[in-house]
Description:
By secondary structure, this protein is an alpha/beta fold. Helices cover 39% and strands 17% of the residues.
Amino acid sequence: MTTTIDLNADMGEGFGAWRIGDGVDPHILPLISSANVAAGFHAGDPTTMADILRQAAEHGVAVGVHPGYRDLVGFGRRHIHASAEELVNDALYQLGALRELAAHENLTLHHFKLHGALFMHAARDDEFAQALCRALKHVAPSLPIYCLAGTAIDRAASEAGISRIHEFYADRDYNDEGGIVFVRKVKPLEPEAVAQKVLKACQDGVVEAVSGKHVHVSFQSICIHSDTPGALSLVKSVRSALDQAGFEIKAH
């Protein structure tokens, strides 16, 4: 059983005057250890990105880039048919944007994590996963990739010699193969039930799939999406349960 665990959440998922979710980023940041910052394509604008970077620095939270499909209207949750080369260029563009803003705040990026439908595409598409990892090995070799264990991008990163941090998704359902069930609209969840699900995964290494089957999971980081309804309550409940169980919350 691990005694140190990373708790991450997606941050800065608004655009200008618009906000996705409950607008609770400032309240979530003190409770997590790493933040995935939207970098302009599915959400995020330069000022929002800079604000999140400054807030994360104030709380000692590690920051990573969170590139998505070029899909502001669909919040990056719609699959876009594009070549692997185009998608890699889009991801590098977003990495560069956040990296420069972070440098302006005297911050160094901690990790790389794809968003939404692009995350799912990389999990199953070998061509894109391999092309992306080759590019990241060249431009950001020290950035670990947050991903689901056993997926195409996990394998590609391993082959490229890039570190991976495997995730457990507190606010998503799992299938019998240990993959997450992708949904475009997440329903409200019961905080205590989510906290117990996380504890079971941390202590026993298993999660109950939608079929009722217990599936093995291996991870070093727990993700709670900030746009999930009631996200702040979920983060508070999970953080409290982990603290009480003696886990140290720390970015890897």
